[in-house]
Amino acid sequence: MKSIKIISSILYYAVKIIAIGYLSTAVYILINCLFEGPFFEKLENNRFAINFPFTSKHFLLGSEYTTAYVAEMVLGIALYGFFFYLLSGVFNAFKQKKLFTDFGIKKLKHFYIFNLAVYPILAIFWSFISVEDFPFIAMIIAHLIMGFFIFFMNAIFEQGYKLQNEQDLFI
């Protein structure tokens, strides 16, 4: 069990950093596209680039500079930032001193609800307004598989929590 706690601790911090990266990237894109600041660059054929801060090196390239395209890009990146944030909560549940806790059950529940309900609904809506060609069906199926896996894991956690509480009452 010690190796699980070590690995989940490493993954918790790594995934939390990824979540922060995605969310800050979404904000960075939004600010640069809204205000066309010094890191924003218009390119030929209505394309655009957002540069790394204080450089002229491209960080992100956009294929068309329209409100719909930028909104889709920002929302897509923010959505995955939120996904990674919830995933870090799952890893956080596994790094706790006690494995079966109300905290862990709550983190697993948030993650499976996102993958079984929120993401499929948003992806279906996203597919109708999308400017880009994304493999929406494959993405929805992948999130459903993750969601069901964590749903089953949550049921195991709930059962473990009940057994753990019953055992604590006998001691």
Task: Please list the strands of the largest sheet in the order they lie side by side.
Answer: 1-2-3
Question: What gap, in angstroms, lies between the N and C termini?
Answer: 23 Å
- The helix/strand order is HEEEHHH
Q: Which structural class fits the helix and strand makeup?
A: mainly alpha
Domain count: 2
Biggest sheet architecture: 3 strands, antiparallel
- DSSP helical segment count: 4
Q: Tally of extended strands?
A: 3
Calculate the mean pLDDT score and round it: 91
Shape: elongated
Low-confidence stretches: none
* Helical coverage, percent range: over 70%
Overall description:
The structure is a single chain. By secondary structure, the chain is mostly helical. The chain folds into 2 domains: 1-87, no CATH class; 96-171. It is 73% helix and 7% strand. The protein is built from 4 helices and 3 strands. It has a 3-stranded antiparallel beta sheet with strand order 1-2-3, with helices on one face. Helix 1 (2-35) packs antiparallel against helix 2 (67-94). The longest helix is centred in the C-terminal third of the chain and has 35 residues, at 136-170. It is elongated and about 70 Å long. The mean pLDDT is 91.
